[in-house]
Amino acid sequence: MLDDILQRVRDHQPRILTPERRLPEAAVLMPITRAEQPELVLTLRASGLSTHGGEVAFPGGRRDPDDPDLVYTALREAQEEVGLAPGIVEVVGPMSSLVSRYGIHVTPYVGVVPDFVEYRPNDAEIASVFSVPLDYFRADPREVTHRLDDSGRSWYVPAYQYGEYRIWGLTAMMIVELVNVVFDANIDLHRAPASFIDLTTRTTR
Fold this sequence. Notes:
Blueprint: H1 2-11, E1 25-34, E2 39-45, E3 56-57, E4 60-62, H2 70-82, E5 90-94, E6 98-99, E7 105-114, E8 126-133, E9 144-150, E10 153-162, E11 165-167, H3 169-183, E12 197-198, E13 203-204
Parallel strand pairs: 1-7, 9-12
Antiparallel strand pairs: 1-4, 2-3, 2-8, 5-7, 6-7, 9-10, 10-11, 12-13
């Protein structure tokens, strides 16, 4: 399964945004475990952080002025946040870039990591590290759908509940693109479902 997943990611042509104005850049790593049943590695951010505190996210962060490229940013941040050594990550390719609600241009990179890694969360930034079978998202087991408006379009983004972890927002959008690419899941982020929560007005429809 993993070889097919990686080839599909390599063949994928992601959408790279060109914002009308220059935005701060960031990159995240979407780690997939090298296993018969691959898993996605995610983090729960510390609750005291000024942005995205208490939310599930992929390891990553803002690009530093000295970073030569965004792949370097993703690997550097993953090492700083969860102790993932860059040398054991096989970077496969990017997914489509997105703009966060804080006005940051984020590019995700899929990478393969060993099945058994002893992660060392940076307590100042990361509350926990956990993994979810990639196949879990294949059937789109969403709990609810959130409507988000961005760049003149409406996005209908699933929110997943996996054990104690709630996966939603930008992280869920990245996961949807990945499972669409590797599993032909055909999850449409622009088609309104029968009911959804409009986060712009905080109402349920």
